[in-house]
Amino acid sequence: MDDLLSDVSSATQGFSGFDWVVVAVVLLSMVVGLWRGFAREVMAVLGWVLAFVGASLLAKPLANALTHVIDDPTLRYLAGWLLIFVAVLAIFGAVGAFFSKQMRQPGFNLGNRFLGGMFGVVRGLVIMMAAVLLLRAFLPDSEEAWLDNAQLVDPLDDMAEVFGQTFDDVLEADPPETLGESFESSEML
């Protein structure tokens, strides 16, 4: 046990305040993931994404239906957007709670919690990658010294670069070609 504490102490010896914020965010996200479980975490992320997409696509038709209730077009659009966003989040929250309850059955709970924790670690890292990118974008160069001196910023920058490149590759890929290549490579097995 003393060796483990010694290793942790030496690894974190030069940590700055920002490094400790990174550690805290990742650990907190992991604990939330462990507590909620994988099923609920995935449904929550899907819910947020689909709530945003659904609200963006359907707000105008709903706003048109609200003309007799709200006179101002801006408020009408905002009300339509918020109604759809909240409704989709509520639906996915209920579905996530149902799946989470089903995963509490013997044999599923441990795996659900473990995968939830791993999901939480990934979510925490994504949050911190986004934070570093935003800080670099909005802070003047003269005020970035505390960020550049943090030990965990370089690994976060590297992960963000890989993530960004992968995302660009996905956006540039031609789905029919990619699917065809997948099917052809599976036939070789």
Automatic annotation (TrEMBL):
Gene Ontology terms: biological process: toxin biosynthetic process
Membrane topology: Multi-pass membrane protein
Pfam annotation, one family: Colicin_V
Keyword Transmembrane included in the entry's annotation: yes
Transmembrane regions listed in the UniProt entry: 20-38, 45-66, 78-99, 120-139
One Gene Ontology term, aspect cellular component: membrane
Annotated localization: Membrane
Coiled-coil annotated residue ranges, if any: none
Primary localization class, coarse: membrane
Keywords: Membrane, Transmembrane, Transmembrane helix
Protein name per its UniProtKB record: CvpA family protein
Organism: Luminiphilus syltensis NOR5-1B
